[in-house]
């Protein structure tokens, strides 16, 4: 399976970006129970940004990410999205799409498939 992220770039603080993750195949609970966006920022371990339960579209966010990030899917296009609003310099980092967890969806080591990431820079 391939996950390919796109949509990263440079933006000023307060701006928005929409990341996309193209999935090579249908997004279905039979293949990917959970899908998620993670990020690696300076000085921090890879952390969960948003999680999607593919069976019913339920989403979940770590407390620190609530309010500015929205994860969604377009099954007709086999694409996962991350809408990011009111971006802050602390959001600068590499954002990754992940799939394959069946439990503990906020833990990166539970995911079996990863994209290469897309760079987001907020100044």
Chart the SSEs and their pairings.
Layout: E1 3-6, E2 9-11, E3 17-23, E4 34-41, E5 47-53, E6 58-60, E7 69-74, E8 79-84, E9 93-101, E10 113-114, E11 118-122
Describe the structure.
The N and C termini lie far apart (34 Å). The chain has strands at 3-6, 9-11, 17-23, 34-41, 47-53, 58-60, 69-74, 79-84, 93-101, 113-114, 118-122. The protein has no helices and 11 strands. Strands 2, 4, 5, 6, 9, 10 and 11 form a 7-stranded mixed β-sheet that branches. It is globular and about 40 Å long. The model has no long low-confidence stretch (mean pLDDT 91).
Largest sheet: 7 strands, mixed
Please give the number of β-strands. 11
Structural class: mainly beta
Strand content: over 45%
Mean pLDDT: 91
Oligomer: single chain
Q: How many H/I helical runs?
A: 0
Low-confidence residue ranges: none
The coarse overall form would be globular
- Helix fraction, binned, reads under 10%
Order of helices and strands, N to C?
A: EEEEEEEEEEE
N- to C-terminal distance: 34 Å
- Nearest-angstrom radius of gyration? 13 Å
Brief digest:
This protein has 123 residues and is mostly beta strands. It is built from no helices and eleven strands. It is globular.
